[in-house]
Amino acid sequence: MTTRPDTEVVFDPATYADGVPFGALARLRRDRPVVWVEETPVLGWPEGPGFWLVLSHADVEHVLNQPALFSSSLGATQIRDPATPEALRYVRNMMLNMDPPEHIRLRRMLSRSFTPRAVAGLEVRIRRHARTICDRTFGEAAEGECDFAKDLAADLPLLTLADVLGVPAEDRWLLFDWSNRVIGYQDPDYATSAEFDPGTGTGMAAEALRLRPSPDPVTGRMPDPRTREGMPDLYAYAHLLAEYKRRHPGGDVMSILLAQRDETDGGRVSAEEFENLFWLFAVAGNETLRNGLPGGCVALLENPGAADELRADPGLLSSAVDEMLRWWTPVMTFRRTATDDCAVGGQAIRAGDKVVVSFISANRDGAVFGDPDRFDIRRRPNPHLVFGHGPHFCLGAHLARTQMSALFSEVLTRTSSLSAAGPPSYLRSNFQRGVKRLPVTWTA
Length: 444
Fold this sequence. Notes:
The protein is an alpha+beta fold. The protein has helices at about 5-10, 20-30, 55-65, 85-90, 100-115, 115-140, 150-155, 155-165, 170-185, 190, 205-210, 230-245, 255-260, 270-300, 305-310, 315-330, 360, 395-415; strands at about 35, 50-55, 70, 145, 335-340, 340-345, 345-350, 355-360, 415-420, 425, 435, 440-444. It is about 45% helix and about 10% strand. Helix 9 crosses helix 14. The mean pLDDT is about 90.
């Protein structure tokens, strides 16, 4: 049997349905920490020009710290190039795909919208949501079985994002379907997600759903969800929500944002900017945590002694959450584009080349993390890169940690044991380390 090159293994989305190829990543990181990867045609997607994959912790930090040399805007931040110049133009309006000074302006306004009062209110509601979800799942039973990914992990980020965005609670499963379609476009289980019940939603949801695309009758594929044309229902909902919030502002973060005027030019967030921020929160804000939570559970299932230690000493939960995030690493890669000839890790790179940073590799770099494959809830320091690094460091990092702590505090308090009830099912994606199903049994 022919052995595939490690670069082909780590690029192929199908690889990840069986688990992350940590062995291939470790060999590449040791031998060629900045390596060229061919973009072969996969899953109906055409071949691309190829990219440099950056694997060491130090080199990933180096790339992320230099937005002038490694641009988020030139080709956006996904490995695959946007399909058309118009698609690229539109996604450049998303904060994730901006360079300074545009990125600084929008980030400043968004940062100011997370006021201490708003964040404190969100923290209270997160803990309340976690209790409600665990009440529903565990009840008063002495033991039971559930799907941790769906029954426990899926709803908390949806409820939190509904609070942040001011989305009515009955519409929150729209966020679930949208993030499935975007993040899971390489996986047939997710690409046509339709968990939302139209009969329970608001008028805004009903109006948006009229625009929901259908699979192509010949290929069976949905339109590219990384384009505006591929997600017309999401953008229609965002537009309706923005109009409503301008007329009826609340205490949520998005209402505060829409009411702000920029201190430099006095301008407000445009409709296009708001729609893209809504996309960013609804998709990225949901999916990262939705996979981080069951990823943390996988860590505890594989290391049951850690769960016992956390029950005995809840004070360890803060460091345990960071270790869950490092050990799992929900977002595995992000892309930049070189603006000039340069070098990374001794490798010459030309202007215009794609440069893809591997968070999943950097977070297992033995030069930074002792015994990096071991799950260690006492690991300190823990300079993982789950939330990125540099000017694009995730604004939602605090809320993500709060949700992880709240849910695992409730789960561990209410159970004396957790064990696998069957094999997990992983997302077919080279971008998100996703968990589709995670059956577990528990004892109260």
